Amino acid sequence: MINMMRRAAQFLLVVGTLLLFARDSFAKLDVPDPFLVRSKPVVHIPFKLPPHAQKITEELYKLPQALDRESRLNVEAYAIIHKKDRPKKTEVRNNNLRRRQTRCYGFFANGAKWKMVEPWIINASGSGLLESFVLSNLASDISKWEDATDGTVGNGGLDVLGNGSATNTQLIADTSSPDNINEVYFGAVDDPDIIAVTIVWGFFGGLVSQRRLVEWDQIYSSAYLWSATGEANKMDFENIVSHELGHSVGLIDLYNSSCTDETMYGYATEGETKKRDLNSGDITGMNKLY
Questions:
Q1: Which of 1, 8, 185, 262 is the most exposed place for a label (fewest CB within 10 A)?
Q2: Taking a C-beta distance cutoff of 8 angstroms, is the pair 265, 259 a contact?
Q3: Is residue 2 part of a domain?
Q4: DSSP H or E run through 10
Q5: What is the pLDDT of residues 187-234, one digit of tens each?
Q6: Stretch 166-192: mean pLDDT
Q7: Beta partners for 54?
Q8: Are 230 and 270 in contact (CB under 8 A)?
Q9: Structural domain contains residue 16
């Protein structure tokens, strides 16, 4: 019995030596280490607005009606473009949404909000940030908006956007029809000034009581460097995400110069962090909508 144990130990020693030799040989030959799992970044389909998108402003587009597979009814969508800095001139066409703004908040449509809690998924590939940070920070930023539903900060609030999880699968922001999956990811966009795009599907017309949101998708431009700490030459993730999530819950951009401190103000730049915390207009708007 002792001899058998010795032989087994000697065999394992020989096998271990061979494995170490093979590992060193691969390293010397500059061959990928077979003992390590190397994850490849997911390449998402570049985002581009469809040609049939109706331009409302330089930063807002309306998408045609499409069938919502869950309700079996036709829904509409808005694509909100978040750009860097403020352009010299903003072209305005049929700017009904801006006229709906009351003080420093505004909605896609009165009553167009979430009436059913749904999960969401995020792929952090291409962000340059830790997946754990991206997931936890996004969840925390959602909590800010949910906390504001009662009009105060710190007392909790409604569950609006639900819980999320990370994924390694390829995601896509839906511009033709909703797929009933709320997706967040980093990828290429067709305009270097675009920081992020949020697409919100829902029922925006008809009786106020029948209006509701059914899907939200977000893409963050991988052309920018992203930061978790407000670095001067990078886009601060929490700052930008807090703004984009305002669209996900039903709020629209602000462009009035008196609203520049609001999280929903429509422009941003590298190093900015003031949108991390909701301002009075953001809180009031969330409370009035929910």
A1: 1
A2: yes
A3: no
A4: helix 2-28
A5: 999 899 999 999 999 999 999 999 999 999 999 999 999 999 999 999
A6: 95
A7: 62
A8: no
A9: no
Longest CA–CA separation in the chain, Å: 89
Per-residue tokens: 236 = 């601060």
By the 8 A CB rule, do 109 and 213 touch?
no
Identify the DSSP state of 46: P
> Within a domain: residue 18?
no
Q: Name the phi and psi angles at 210, rounded to 5.
A: -95, -5
Q: Which three-class secondary structure string do you get for the chain?
A: CHHHHHHHHHHHHHHHHHHHHHHHHHHHCCCCCCCCCCCCCCCCCCECCCCCCEEEECCEEEEEEEEECCCCEEEEEEEEEEEECCCCCCCECCCHHHHCCCCCCCECCCCCCCCCCCCEEEECCCCCCCHHHHHHHHHHHHHHHHHHHHCCCCCCCCCCCCCEEECCCCCCCCCCCCCCCEEEEEECECCCCEEEEEEEEEECCCCHHHCEEEEEEEEEECCCCEECCCCCCCEEHHHHHHHHHHHHCCECCECCHHHCCCCCECEECCCCCHHHCCCHHHHHHHHHHC
Domain membership of residue 121 as a residue range: 54-289
3-class secondary structure, 6: helix
Is the residue at 211 inside a domain?
yes
Return the half-sphere exposure (C-beta side, CA atoms, 13 A cut-off) of residue 14.
6
103: left (phi over 0), alpha (psi -120 to 50) or beta: left
- Looking at the DSSP bridge assignments, the partners of residue 124 are none
Number of domains observed in the structure of the chain: 1
- Supply 41's token pair: 């970044």
Q: What pLDDT is stored for residue 97 in this prediction?
A: 53
| Alpha carbons 70 and 21: distance in angstroms, whole number | 57
